[in-house]
Amino acid sequence: MISEADVILAGLDGRTKVASRKATFVGIDTGMALVDMGDSRFVCDFGNGYIPGPGETVRILSIGDQHLLFPAAGRPTVGTVLTVSSTSASVATSTGTFSMPFAGTAPTSGDRVGVVWAEGEPWCTSKLSSSPPAPLPPPPDPGTVEPSVRSAEFRAIDAGSTDRNQVRWWTGQPRAGNSTYGAWFYGGQIKDTIPAGAQFVSMEFYAAWWQRRYAAPNFGLHSDPFKAGVPAVVGAAPWAPNEGWNAMPYGADWFPNLIAGGPHYGIGLNQGGDNIFANLAQNAMSGALRITWRS
After folding, report:
1. 276 by DSSP, 3-state: which?
2. CA-derived radius of gyration, the chain
3. Contacts (Cβ under 8 Å, ≥6 apart) of 260
């Protein structure tokens, strides 16, 4: 089969006359194409595998006395489905939008599909297994400030345990027992460091164990920046962290309270088994918080 490139190259040898003209396809006779050009009808060979439909405008390349038929315009082979009816799909292609029947299962809007041409009419084939890469996102507006991620470590400035019914800070170890509140105090450092409106990313808690017995301790928020009266521990829920740094499971809920500067300032223990954490003299990291945020 002679390709269109062969035809063009043949016309460059300086000896063979090449002419390109448009004609109207009529039909096929004994394997040859019938076309009308002006008042004349003549036969020509198919230049490639393309078979036009009756009445379609085609291009005839003549090399000497040989005539070859080609499409008069490009034929897209892929497109994107816009809408689908029960029998056809509207498909956007590089040369325009066409309504075409589909073969097999109906495509879905947005599908990248193949397009085949039969006797001048396009048909939609199945969804392609791969699609072109998504376009790159537009560059950020120069006037827009991208959020920055920051992280800070907040060590407790004091810690201890008091009876739940009276002020008696009788130990510096935060304890979770039947009759005690344990607490770590951070002063105002969290609210003074993390700005209002910051977005939570993560929170970690440093557990320095001294004794682990029975049920898990109940962790919650307490009401005081400094050791004073009996702290109010709210929202306590059981949690048994490992020794060292642990992702705080309640961090997302506690974050807005801790950065607001009241009424909740620190981490407390409201009963739970018979558990004891190190005081700050035994381990200065006891109760430390590591918080990451966007602002």
Report:
1. strand
2. 39
3. 191, 196
Q: Are the CB atoms for 207 and 242 separated by under 8 Å?
A: yes
| Phi, psi values for residue 47, rounded to 5° | -75, -25
Query: How many other C-beta atoms are found inside a 10 Å radius of the C-beta of residue 135?
Result: 6
- Does this model's pTM top 0.70? My answer is no
Q: Residues 101-149: pLDDT tens digits?
A: 887 778 887 888 888 877 667 778 777 765 555 455 666 665 555 568 9
Report the alpha-carbon distance of residue 100 to residue 35 in Å, rounded: 26
The C-alpha atoms of residue 171 and residue 109 are separated, in whole angstroms, by: 68
Angle at 249 between CA 245 and CA 254, to 5 degrees: 100
Nearest Cα residue to 10 out of 47, 63, 59:
63
| Rounded Cα distance, 100 and 107, in Å | 12
